[in-house]
Amino acid sequence: MRVSPVMHVALLPSPVGPLHVGVEDGHLTALYTAEHRLYAADEAPRDETFGAIRQQLDEYFAGTRRTFDLPLHERGTPFERAVWARLRVIPFGETVTYGEIARELGSAPRAVGRANGRNAISIIVPCHRVVGANGSLTGYAGGLPTKRQLLVHESLFAGRLSEPPGVAF
Fold first, then answer.
1. pLDDT digit string (tens) for 33-74?
2. What's the rounded Cα separation, in Å, for the pair 40 and 49?
3. Residue 163 — very low, low, confident or very high, per pLDDT cuts 50/70/90?
4. Cα(120)–Cα(47) distance, rounded to whole angstroms?
5. 100, 86 in Cβ contact below 8 A?
6. Which of 37, 73, 128, 132 is deepest in the core (most CB within 10 A)?
7. Claim: this prediction has a pTM higher than 0.90
8. Are 46 and 3 in contact (CB under 8 A)?
9. Which of 127, 131, 137, 167 is catalytic?
């Protein structure tokens, strides 16, 4: 008999608004901004994984962390997981286009966009670093203002004094 995994959710504060976090069996399964959350909890359950998630997010927003080291459990098709793996190697403070990822994976930009939009672990799996062909901000499940805010944050901590292309205030 298979026992269903236990899912815990928490609401964590951040500079881009509350983040809704899901953990299952010690693995991060979801991280949503307020614009695209699935569910929320009033307080964090007692799970040591939330402490690591919160610490790494705090370090990211403080500008002292550029990559994450958290156990992830991503649910998706093989193609979606391939797109998400590619997202994880986009350097902090940089962007790539949907078309670039599509060419690398032998796919179409729209398919990459759909997979990007199904990423349940935003920020950690940095779907916000994918932009349109001309560098413009396009499609972000957490809302374009949040995407802009994340890109500006990374640009500043990556040592750039101006906003990234396509990220006008």
1. 877 644 444 444 455 678 889 999 999 999 999 999 999 999
2. 17
3. low
4. 20
5. no
6. 128
7. no
8. no
9. 127
